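pls design
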């Protein structure tokens, strides 16, 4: 049976049983969005293949896929399947800094997405290039950054690391309060 695996927002891997060999023919692969079959694309694949990666697809779209074995030995009926791509991965759209003190501040971000495995919070003083990293579980949307210098501006970057391996980032600036004057 023709089926899809490794589905993302813009690609999927098609797999099928070995029906042909290099010598006995080739496959014609046709695929199109269900909603717009006129936009059909066609690809030819050697008979030695049993998989093909389709990419440059639209997110959240159902595709009709037909694999037609073109054999010079046997007749094989076309194999068909439907595959729906995932929703587009969106980056964190806001990073909020709150509860700022001389040595710490609270960082939160939105939205929280199921497709995120974890977040990385990078922070370092401006100007400067000493950056520290906090790893935050993908289910959480906030963390506290501690052990900071007072009266300092920090650049904070939240990077969402998606299950697909993609990463998207958003930055914000944060200022710590002045320390207690002794």
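designed seq:
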């Amino acid at each position: 049976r023709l089926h899809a695996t490794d589905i993302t927002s813009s690609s999927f891997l098609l797999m099928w049983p070995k029906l042909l060999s290099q010598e006995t023919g080739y496959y014609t692969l046709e695929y199109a969005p269900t909603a717009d079959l006129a936009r059909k694309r066609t690809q030819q694949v050697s008979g030695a293949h049993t998989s093909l990666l389709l990419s440059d697809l639209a997110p959240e779209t159902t595709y009709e896929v037909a694999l037609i074995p073109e054999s010079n030995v046997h007749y094989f009926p076309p194999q068909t399947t439907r595959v729906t791509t995932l929703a587009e991965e969106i980056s964190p759209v806001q990073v909020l800094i709150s509860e700022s003190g001389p040595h710490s501040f609270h960082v939160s971000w939105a939205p929280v997405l199921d497709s995120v495995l974890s977040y990385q919070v990078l922070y370092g003083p401006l100007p400067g290039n000493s950056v520290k990293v906090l790893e935050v579980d993908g289910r959480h949307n906030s963390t506290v950054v501690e052990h900071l210098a007072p009266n300092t501006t920090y650049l904070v970057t939240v990077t969402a690391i998606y299950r697909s391996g993609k990463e998207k980032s958003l930055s914000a600036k944060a200022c710590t309060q002045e320390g207690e004057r002794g």
